[in-house]
Amino acid sequence: MASDDVVGGSNTVAFRQTPPLYAESKEAAVSTFVNLAEEAKLASEGVKAPGHAVLTICKSLFAGGVAGGVSRSAVAPLERLKILLQVQNPLHRKYNGTIQGLRYIWNTEGLRGLFKGNGTNCARIVPNSAVKFYSYEQASRAILWFYRQQTGNEDAELTPVLRLGAGACAGIIAMSATYPMDMVRGRLTVQTENSPYQYRGMFHALSTVLREEGPRALYKGWFPSVIGVVPYVGLNFAVYESLKDWLVKSRPFGLVEGEDLSMVTKLACGAAAGTVGQTVAYPLDVIRRRMQMVGWKDASSIVTGDGRSKAPLQYSGMVDAFRQTVRNEGFGALYRGLVPNSVKVVPSIAIAFVTYEALRDLLNVELRISD
Fold it and tell me: Which parts of the chain are Solcar repeats (predicted)?
């Protein structure tokens, strides 16, 4: 009490001013504590960030790989028939259409014949699809960042042309990374009992091609593949994402505002994307497949000038392959196998997109391709 009594006069005023000063110091202390807590949180997140980023990447790659494997296995018989139609000898045709071709394979080779080469196809398409989806996400984010920097609009969104560019980048990266497997998969799919080489599997085919034809043979047809993948994969992503974006914003056909797009709607978007992409890029796929067969004796042949004999196909390059194909078999040969390919691509692309997004939602990956 003695000390309290001493406080008086002007000191009393000082005593009365103490509470607001105390409150300010308290607020400063709380603010400092919050800042320290936030810094500690950020530091903690910085330690966890690399592991979290790796986990996110692994989830994305896993979702893309599974999506590719499921979609291709679902249409494996049509995939094999498409390749057989593309490379069959025009002098001795065995496959004249989708139904007849599937029936012929079933009668001559059974159920296993319908899925011949699918194991190798999945071994190729799983990493290809994983890299493709992940590359698209990264490319689209980089392109969007650059686009916003150039325009100065932080709210800018990807346009269909920018999505096409991101899809083209993803397709080129994925195709180049897995092209040797695609090359030997084509040969495994085409080979029969009369084929010059009997490949026992993907690794045996790879080693045989390396030994007999050299390492460059593993990239036969790579250039037309690069050109073909730009419109194909690019249009797949661009059409799919743009259609979804339009449906979300405009809500036509009775779609309810605020609701997510249904699986059926997403499948329809994927089907439209696959139809557009494969129609534009199909001739390049035919040329790529034919160039892959060069060097494999008697695997493919052309009718010579006398109209009766045949000679092995030899191409000096992509342009020469186009010229020879059109000259010897007509322009329609560039679209041979388009019908079974259309029946295959439409559900395949749709299943791949929907499976990928469903798995990413299931795995709680923060970013989706739509983001």
Answer: 55-142, 158-246, 261-362
